[in-house]
Amino acid sequence: MGKAWLGLMKIVVMDGHAANPGDLSWDIFRQFGEVVVYERSKLEEVIPRALGADAVFTNKVVFDDAVMAQLPELKYIGILATGTNVVDLDAARKRGITVTNIPAYSTDSVAQLVFAHILNILNRIDVYANDVREGRWASNPDFCYWYEQIHELSALTLGIVGMGNIGRKVAEIALAFGMKVNVFSSKELSQLPLGVVKKSLDEILAESDIVSLHCPLTPTTKSLIRKETIEKMKPTAILVNTGRGPLVDEADVAEALQNGHLGAYAADVMVQEPPRADNPLFACSNAYLTPHLAWGTIEARERLMAIAVENVRAFIAGKPQNVV
Is 292 a catalytic residue? Predict the structure, then answer.
């Protein structure tokens, strides 16, 4: 527990555009003092812009030990996301800087996109809607048509790797669809949604029609999905990644897609963001990639902003919350 803050703060938002591209307001933070908002900050702009600030907010701007060493007045870093890798937490603790994040604000939004991808792949909504716009249905000899077999979710098995808030929500939705749900998790079965079955990772990979990744990125999980693990999967399997880009080896996934060893890959995250234009996944017709938008619903971002305000309020009161 820290000391209550006396007086007004200077707050600098380093890269506010992603969380608030203009449809929300930063004005609520002005109750705490002066607020300066930058849409984006380049590496060379970080120090001059943050200099003199008592508190900063960052989404992707990195605050490492070298940066913090040049900001002697900094006492608080608010991460406008759940992930904390943009801040050197050990360096912050050493310097007495409180760091907070925004937990569990986007659970519903991310789980929703998981199934948007799955349903689009299974029902080929994008393909058929485009067909109709181009006149294929109007000129069809029958009242209906489809290119390949369509499957019901209730006939399929979903394997979930990682059972945090989002993994749990995905499991609940899948169960509501009538799917068989297997999970790979360190949690006890009693802590998991009723109806799921715990399995080993190898069993998840081998048995699942759809595999959805929701585990944190660690040295153990980096490139969790690569050539060796893809070989354990069904060649028709759908792989979904809304967790972290580096959970997969993108070159290996692209090769598997091209060679018929993987049915489809749906991802909202990539190893490098924005990705390189020559990323091999872009050449795969069965790769469905969205630009890290799962968290971006207006409802999720409203929750993010509300939690960020309460994080500052708690810090000022000397009772910081969501400290990482």
Answer: yes
What local confidence, expressed as pLDDT, does residue 8 receive? 85
pLDDT tens for 76-116 read 999 999 989 899 999 999 999 999 999 999 999 999 999 99
Is 261 marked active-site? Answer: no
**Taking a C-beta distance cutoff of 8 angstroms, is the pair 10, 33 a contact?**
yes
Choosing from 95, 124, 226, 292, the catalytic residue is 292
Catalytic residue among 49, 168, 244, 303: 244
Indicate the SS3 state at residue 66. helix
The answer to whether residue 188 is catalytic is: no
Q: Which residues pair with 262 in a beta bridge?
A: none
pTM attached to this predicted model:
0.91
- 39, 134, 231, 273: the catalytic one is 273
Residue-wise pLDDT tens digits, 244-259:
999 999 999 999 999 9
Residue among 229, 233, 249 at smallest CA distance from 241: 249
